[in-house]
Every structure is written in structure tokens, then in C-alpha cells.
Amino acid sequence: WREKLSALLLAHSNEKARARKQSPSTVASTIADSPGAEFRSPAASPHWKPLAQKDEPSGFSPFVAFCFAINYILGTGFLTIPWAFVQGGLISSTLILILVCLLSDFVKTYLLETMARAEVMLDNQMRWRVNKSKGEEHSEKDRLLYSPVLARTMSMERGAGEGDEEEGGQEEKMQLVPINEKGGSKAMHHSNSMNTMYSSIQNPMVPGKVIAPGGGVIAGAGGSRPGTASHTPNTSLPGTPGTPGDARRLAQKRTLIVVKKKASSSQSSSTKYLVGERKFEINALCRVFLGKRFGLHLYTFFLSIYVYCTLWAYTSVFASAMSKALPVFDNGDPDGNYLWYAVIFAVLVVPLSCMELNEQVAMQVFLTGCRFLMVFLMVFTSAECAQSNDAAAGIGEGEGSHDDYAAPLFNLSGLHHSIPILVFATIYHHSIPGLAHPVADKRELNGIFRATTIFSSIAYGFIGITLGYVFGTRIADSANLNWKDFGIIEREGRSDAMLWFADSVSFFVLCFPAIDVVSAFPLNAITLGNNLMGMAFGRKIHEVEKNRLVVIQFRLLASIPPILLGILVRELGTITGYAGTTAFIMTFTFPSLLYIRSRRKAIAKKFDSITYYTTFASNEIYAIALCWFGIGMFVFVTTLLIRG
Questions:
Q1: Domains along the chain?
Q2: Which secondary structure element, helix H or strand E, spans residue 150, and what is its range?
Q3: pTM of the entire structure?
Q4: What is its main location (predicted)?
């Protein structure tokens, strides 16, 4: 049967060669030069398939992804940072901020590792895969392909007599033959140097079968006798450059050979698990690794509280800022102006929340630049703004000193106000799956999110210390509101350009956060709506996610309640304080549990526990400590807030 199979494949290859009317070298060069193709012998098996040509990765660059992450984390939360620094003390709040950012980086690592493991361990139906690469003779690192080959035997070493074959001996020892890059073969030999690069193959069932395209290692069977090995110094592949072959020799002697190419060190390193093209929301990861009751439902409960409080804060920021910058009613009715702008805000953001958001990269980068500009203006005009506030309040130069309203350096009794806000301002982890999904090179995710954490911590510390020191206890809970009276002093005698600059800075600082939350509100509402829909439909989520009526219902459920709450309660510090308590569980407890459970699950199912994102923080002891830290801080801060 081997002779017949080889003859059929040879006839097929000769027919193709005659049809093309090309020399073997021309055929080889044509195949090699064709886009997306790899060189192979024309006599190769029809089962041979070239490796698919990988397109260049498309998606966000690291800089664009960084801007998106900054737009998530550097939202309205940074406006409450100066107030939090004053409440907790400038130095003590700075130390807390550094600790929170360090732990935030730990959590980022835990989520990326869990997502990478889920990519490998789960199929598209969210069911467990079986790791076939471990414990089998041929792993995915070996490329096994079938092809006939001409082999002229120059010498043969017989390790057993012919009688062994009659007695049913099955095992064959196959010698290794290296193939050059052009497809030709080198002399077969027993050198130890080759054994360091390649391993011999034993196949008790079929006496030879495979050749690798484009280079590899050949182990040729010296006939069909067991216990024999063949040395083939001139192995010819029909149609291969330099070895045109001979039909008569093919008819005289044919054999099948087996090739196994060992994985290089670069291939071995590439097996570290990466985040893939599928997007796993955190509540889906909780369902898989923590269970439906404890994981899915409990996480979605805390996520709902957190996002509702975030959207609540956005409503308060927009209505408060616009009612003071552009009051509709001139009778000085603050409640009427606030309610009017809250209704306008609802008219703008609720329809956007019901739509599928297709953001432009240029717009996101532009908004990032506007945030940087706002932080710069607030810091470098804070001293003059404080004087303007004093003038507006009728405080003269001799009526008070800086010590009367100076912010404390340490205030442990106010940390229960400071810590939740600092945590709230550094939270973006629930959006990591959505931020990571469009990034082109998933290997850059660790660096992108780490740069985001470092930059935000520096910006928060800079603005918190500067504005907290300048304004002291007079700082508003939303710091941009202090710029309402900016430029009120010494207007007489100033040039028109200076007056225009003061008015422009005041208007920009007051109104930009309000304009910015119009785009931030739908992002968070869509996230919450999708998570609520995923909890409701579970595995059937893919069947209903295209149903616009169902999607709109959950988007309305996510967007309308926080606007109503924003109308009733307007103190931004109180809102972010309670939202920050839920952030302890969201940020520290659940990601730590996901890391622990996914790692143990990977080990139990014989997957690698090391991923591409593994760092020094990838330790179960750290994860357990972080988990209990989140629970403890949630209980402690919530108790203090309730007690007032």
C-alpha cells in the first residue's frame, strides 16, 4: 500500500509539473514568491496547508489606548481630590494616594492574568477546554505533515535479522536528516551535534510519514524492516530546486519519512498566555471562576452601586457648574437653575446611552489634551483665584490670615472622608476589558495601564497638594467651583487682553467638566446596561444582544435612576464618598479572588499558571491580603460614614 500511495502521489505531481511547463526551480520560486504562501515540494500531500499569513495587528496604538484610559480615570473624580486632601491632611493623604496607586497596579495585573487564562481555557460557549498540548506525543509545537520522498540508500545498518519482522516486531528506529532552507537534504549522519538540536522519533504504528515544509528534520525509515536505520546522503524531493528527481528511480525505491522540528526558544516563550480578541467582562469572569450566586450576582450588585454613584456625580457636576456659569433665571434661584440644567442633561445623555457609541480616536485624544490644560490652568492660577474669592467674600487684607483656613498636614480623624474619594478617583478597573479589547498589541497592556496609574497618581498629588495648600478649608467639594469669581480683583486698570484671559479661564474651568461628562456618562451607562443584560440572560446573551428593544430597556435602567438621584442630592463629596466604599470591594476583593481562582483552575486543568502579564505582584499571598484589605476597608469606612 505504501508503494501504491507513493506512485499515485508521484503521478499527480508529474502531471502538475507538465501542465505548468516549468522547471522545478521555477515552480519552487513561484510558490515561494506568492503572497501568503510557504515553500513546499510539489509532491506534498493534499493535506498540507500553509500557515495562514498573519495580518498586521489593527487597533489602538499604546498612546491612543493611554489617552482612552486617562479619559476614564481622570474624570470628574479629580475635582474632589483637593477637598479630600484637606479633609485627611496634605501629607497623610499623599501617603494614602501612593499606597492606593500601588495596590491599583496590583489589581490591574490580576485582571489581565485572569482574562488571559480565560482566553485559553474557555471556548466560545464559555465552557472549559481540554489542554491537549500536555501529555501527548505530538504537541502543537510540532508541525507534522505528510509527503512522499525519494530516498536512495547508500548504506544500511541492520540491528536485527529478517526473522524479527516475521515474528511481529513493530518498532522502527528512525535516523535524523536535516533539510536545508531550499528544500534539499544534507547527508544523514549520527553526529552528537544534531542530537542536541533534534530528537529522534519512534512510531510503532506507521514506519514513517512526515516532512516539514521550509526546513526541519527528517527521520527516514530504512525500508520496512524493524530495528533498521537508513543513511540517505542524497534525498531528492521531486520538483525541488537542485534535485529534479528521476521517475525511474522513484519507481525503484520510495519511502515515507517523518519530520519533527523542535520548538525554538522564541516559540516556547510565545506560549505565555495573552489577552485575545474576545472580550470577557468582569461579571462573566466572576460567573466562570467564582460561581453564579456569589460571583455574578454579588459583583453585579456592587458594580451597579458604583456606576450609579458615578452617573449620579456626573449629573451633579453638570447641573452645578452650568447653573453657576450660565444661570437661566436671574432672580438668584439656585434650585430652579439646578433643576433646569439637570433636565437638559437628561435630554442629552439618555438618548446617547441608548445608542451604540462609536467614538473617534481624534476626539478622545483631544479631550485628553483638554484635561491636561485644565489641570495646568487650575494649578498655576490658584493663588490669584484664592485672592479673588477673598475679594468676592468681602475679606480685606487685615481681616484674616492664611493660618485661619490653612489645611492640616495630618488629620487622621478625617481619613474616612479622604480614603474613599482617593480610591474612587483611581478606579477604572471595571473598564479594563473594554479598554484592552481594541488595543492592537496586547503585549503592551501591562505598560499602558501602569503608565496610566503612574501619571494619574502624579497629577492627583500635584493638584491635591497645590490647591489644598492655597485654598485650605475654603476649597469647594468640587474644586472647579472656586473659579467662579476668578479675576474679580483689580479689573480696573487691566488691559482688555488680561480681562479676556481671566474670563476665559473662569469659563473653561467651570464648564469643561460639565461638557466632558456629557461624553463620559454614556460610556458608563452602556457598561452598566451591558452587565445588567448579561446577568439577566447569562449564556443566551449573544442571542439577545442584537435585539435593540431589549438593549434600550437595560440602557434606560442604567441611565435614568442616577439622574433622579442627582436632582435630590447635590453634594458631590457625599456622593463620591459612598461610591468609594463600594469601590473597595470592586477594586480589591473581586480581582484578587479572580486571580486566585483562575490560577488554581489553570493548574487543576493542566494549563500554565504563568501568563505574559505575570509580575512580582502575581502571588497568592499578596492576593489574599489584598482581598481582605478590600473587605476590611469597606466595613471600616462605611461604618464611619454612617456614624457621621
A1: 2-45+142-262 (no CATH), 62-132+289-643 (1.20.1740.10)
A2: strand 148-151
A3: 0.66
A4: membrane
